[in-house]
Amino acid sequence: MSASCGPLDTLIKKFTNRDQGRRKAAELRLLTAIESTQRGLTASPSSKQDILDAVSELEDIGRCTVTTGSDLSATWRLLYTTEKETLFILKNAGWLGKEAGEVFQVIDVENGSLNNVITFQPNGFFIVDSSLDVVGEQRTEFKFRGAKVKLGNRPFSLPPFGQGWFDTVYLGRSLRVAKDIRGDTLVVERDGPPKSFL
Question: Which helix or strand (DSSP H or E) is residue 126 part of?
Fold first, then answer.
């Protein structure tokens, strides 16, 4: 959260509706910009700039708001990412004899958990399980606990391999935008309450 945010700024953001029209327009602008990018796989330089501009506007709207409360808990479906590992798996799932399906981020703030899930058709998955700690009004830290991959009949486990943080710079009713420790951007939509894919 910006250092220029004070208690009064936060209260004004919480109780005013003055940004509703701007919020809806910026959300629509972002959704339009990412629509034909295949979750980021085919984003052109011009679409990347349009996405960056829309994200910046939503980030400004989200400034001085708390985005790490209970509203963050959900199953979030991926719409767009710049995260190279996710895009690599989506692009190359065919090497595994599978077709990439939906991608989810499952956050449960109360239970301190974060699961990143890439599904494979018809019934496979790659799940990275992490602990989650709220450390600020927009920042959460995570630490990987392990991973599971299922490509056939049984899942197999992989060791944990990292930690980091992400800021939820914008949190709407159905749309969330996050930026992480590596400078990647994530755009996801609410897909329901937290659920298990195991």
Answer: strand 124-134
Structure tokens at 138: 């927009």
| 91/100 Cα distance (integer angstroms) | 8
pLDDT in tens, 58-110: 999 999 999 999 999 999 999 999 999 999 999 998 887 788 999 999 999 99
Going by the DSSP 8-state scheme, the letter that residue 111 receives in this structure is T
Tokens describing residue 14: 């919480």
Domains and CATH numbers, the chain: 7-190 (2.40.128.280)
How many residues make up the chain in this entry? 198
Q: Is the dihedral of CA 94, 96, 100, 104 positive or negative?
A: negative
Q: State how far the Cα of 77 lies from the Cα of 42, in Å rounded to an integer.
A: 18
- Residue written as token pair 């609410």: 190
> In the structure, how many helices (H) and strands (E) does the chain have?
4, 9
> Nearest CA to 54 among 25, 76, 83?
25
DSSP per-residue letters across 135-162: -SSSEEEEEEEEEEEESSSSEEEE----
